[in-house]
TrEMBL record, chains A, B:
Species of origin: Aerococcus agrisoli
SUPFAM superfamilies the record matches: Aldolase, post-HMGL domain-like
Any one Gene Ontology molecular-function term assigned to this protein's record: 2-isopropylmalate synthase activity
GO-annotated biological processes: L-leucine biosynthetic process
Protein name per its UniProtKB record: 4-hydroxy-2-oxovalerate aldolase
Name of the coding gene: dmpG
Reactions this protein catalyses: (S)-4-hydroxy-2-oxopentanoate = acetaldehyde + pyruvate; (S)-4-hydroxy-2-oxohexanoate = propanal + pyruvate
Amino acid sequence: MSQEITLVEVALRDGSHVIRHQYTKEKVIEVTKGLNEAKVPYIEVSHGDGIGGSSIQYGFSKDSDIELIRAAKENSPFSKIACLLLPGVGTLDDLKEAREAGADMVRIATHVTEADISAEHIKFAKNELGMEVVGFLMMAHMASPEVLLEQAKLMESYGADVVYCTDSAGALLPSEVKERIELLVANLNCKVGFHAHNNLGLAIGNTIAAVEAGASFVDGSARSMGAGAGNAQTEVLVAVLDKMNYQTGVDLFKIMDVAQDIIAPLLPEPVIIDNDSLILGYAGVYSSFRLFAQRAGKKYNVDSRSILMELGKIGVVGGQEDMVMDIAAQLSKRQE
Amino acid sequence: MSQEITLVEVALRDGSHVIRHQYTKEKVIEVTKGLNEAKVPYIEVSHGDGIGGSSIQYGFSKDSDIELIRAAKENSPFSKIACLLLPGVGTLDDLKEAREAGADMVRIATHVTEADISAEHIKFAKNELGMEVVGFLMMAHMASPEVLLEQAKLMESYGADVVYCTDSAGALLPSEVKERIELLVANLNCKVGFHAHNNLGLAIGNTIAAVEAGASFVDGSARSMGAGAGNAQTEVLVAVLDKMNYQTGVDLFKIMDVAQDIIAPLLPEPVIIDNDSLILGYAGVYSSFRLFAQRAGKKYNVDSRSILMELGKIGVVGGQEDMVMDIAAQLSKRQE
C-alpha cells in the first residue's frame, strides 16, 4: 500500500484558460520555484490549448510558450517540465522549439476516438527529440471503456510512455473511472494516467478511484486553477493520497503555501462549480457549446440547459456547433 | 436501481455559520420558496449550532430560530421543515417552541461517542411532540465503525427514525464512509443518513459512496453554503444522483436557479477549500481548535498545521483547547 503516484501540476497550462493565457515569464518563474521547492515531479507549462495555441481562435498568449517553458526549466532544478500539444494546433516545429527550451515531457492530446492523429507527433517526440511522451485521450466519457482501450493501445504502439484517460468535461462518475482505468491497466504495458475536472464535484473522488484502479500518473492544479470548474485541487489531492498511504513525494505544507500565497492571488475569482460548469459536466458536452446554446435558447425561448442535454445525448463533438440551432428549434416545437 | 434518496437542504442551518447567523426572516422566506418550488423534501432552519444557539458563545442570531422556522413553514407547502438541536445548547422548551412554530423534524446532534445525552430529547420529540426524529452523530471519523454502530443503536432505541453518520470535519475517505454506512444499514432497523463536509474535496464522492452503501437520507447545501469548506453542493449532488439513476424528486434546473440566483448573492465570498479547511480535514480536528493553534504557533514559532496534526493524532474533542499550548511547546522543543 505504499505505491508511488506521480503528480503533474497543470496550473501553468490548464490554469492558463482561467487568466485567458496572460501568464508572464515572471509569474511562471514564481510559481515554478514554489512547485519545485514543494518537490512536484512534473510541471506542465503551455498555452491552455497547448503549445502553438496562441492565436485569434484560442486567444493570444501574453508571453510565448517557448519563453515560458525556458523560464520554468531554468528555475526548476528538481521538477521536470512538461508541455501539451494538440496535433492541428501545435506543430512538430513548435515541439522541437519546446524541447530546445527545456521541455522534458510532451503530452500529445487528441479526442478520445482520434488517437491515430497523434502517431507522427508521438514518434517524433520519442525518437527524434528523446522526450518522455504521454498520450492524452480527451473527452474520455464519450467512448466506451473498450473504445478507450483500443485508442490507448494505438498511442502505446506509437511509443507513448503513459496514456491518460482525460475527463475533459468532468462528466465521469467514480464507477466509470474505475472501469476504464482497470481495463487500461490490465491491457497496456505502459503507465496509465488520469486527468479530472470538477464539474460534478468529483475531481478528487474520481482521481482516487483512478489510483485505486491502478493509475500511477495523476494531474492536479493548485487551488483548482483549471478550465471551467477546475481540476483536482493539488494540495487537497496530496493530502488525500497521503491519508491513503500513497507516496507522491510532494511536501504538503509547501504545496499548500504555493496554492494560497502564489496561485490564489492570480485568480480573477475563486474556482467553484457554477451552473455553467455543472450543466456541461451533467450533459457531457464540450464547453465550446455553451455560448451557442445560450444564443439558440434566447432565439427559440428554450432553456439553454435543455439544449445542452440534447446535445449530450447525441454526443456532439467540437466542430458540430452548427447543430445547436436545429436542436433548439426542435425543442421549441416540442414545448408547444 | 431507481432507489429513492431523501435530500435535506442545510443552507439555512449549516449555512448560517457562513453569514454569522445573520439570516433575516425575509431571506429565509426567499430561500424557502425557491427550495419548495424545486421540491426539496426537507429544509433545515436553525442557528448554525442548533436552536437556542443564539448566544455570546456561539454568536447571536439576527432573527430568532423560532421566527425563522415559522416563516419557513408558512412559505413551504411542499417541503417539510427540520431543525437542529444540540443537547446542552438547545432545551426541551426550545424544541417545543420550534414544534409549535411548525418544525416537522428535529435532528438531535451529539458527539459520536455521546449518544446517551440525546435520550431525553429524542423521546420528548417523538413521544410528546410527535415529530420525525433524526439522531445526528457528529465527528464520525473519531469513532471506529463498531463504536459508531453502538452509538447509533442507542439513538435508535430512544426512538430515532433516522440515524446520521455526520462527517463534521470532512475527514472521512470514501472507503471509510462505505464501511461505516454498510455496518449501520446491516444492523439498524431505522433509516441511515450521511452528512458531508468538503474539507478533503470529497463531499460529493463520500455522499455517493454512502448512498451506494445504503444510506437513504443525505444532506446538501446549495452552493456548498455550510461551515468551513461547505457541504455536498446540493445542485451538484442532485445532478450526480440523477446520473446514477437514484430518485431525489428534486427539480435540477430549479435547484440550480436557487443556488445561483438566491444563495450565491448571500455568500460573503465563494465557498472553497482553503488551507484552513484543508488542514482541519486532514488532521481530523474540530474547527474550534484552529485559532488556538495559530496563537500557540506564533508563541512557540511552530507551524500551526503541525500543531493541528498532533491534536488530530491525540484525538482531541471540543473542550480540550487548553492542551494546545502544551502541544506547541513540545513541538518547539522537538524542532530544536
